[in-house]
Request: fold
Amino acid sequence: MVRKTKEEAEKTRKDIIESARTVFHRCGVGRSTLEKIAREAGVTRGAVYWHFKDKAELFFAMRADVFAPMVERTDSILLSETYANPLDAIEASVKEFFRVLDDCSVVREVFEIMISRCEYVDEFASVQDEVGRPAYEFLEKIEGVYRKALEKGMLRQDLDPAMAARDTWAFTSGLLHLMLGCQKGSDLDRQIPAMISMHIALRRRN
Reply:
């Protein structure tokens, strides 16, 4: 009976997170309420409060539900020792990120919520730094991989790894915003892998 109760509680929590994503995407985070989310999930508002203390905590749970597996997936490529050339790891990792974003509607919805459907004001003013933390962690990781490429003589010698990392960081962020601003299945979706390959090619030592 206890096990069943735990399983039911976990299912309710998951349903609330999925409903929050639906409501956040449809209404925008600012206009979403826990009452709307509870209605979408088919539970009481009290049930939502039992799992989450406020909307911000639910927002982060929704993000973590998608981000954790995404980061694990891309990091396994970016930090892999199987690539003789570290630049190949960067290229493959960034391509995998955009492939998942293109293939998985749930992942795309979460990024759309964070980028274009959330105003970081009022109760959300204090969470912006936390929302941006994964991007800065990505910057640190790719800088480390660029340094490995320089040590192996595979990065152009006139490039500073820190600046190369910032350039790739800005390129990836810009591409993400462009992709989310275009309809799924547009020409941009098909061009992204080639754009990433060209970006990395400009950093390779001939």
Q: What stands out?
A: The longest helix spans residues 2-27. DSSP finds nine helices and no strands in the chain. The two ends are 66 Å apart (CA to CA). Residues 60 and 123 are 13 Å apart (CA to CA).
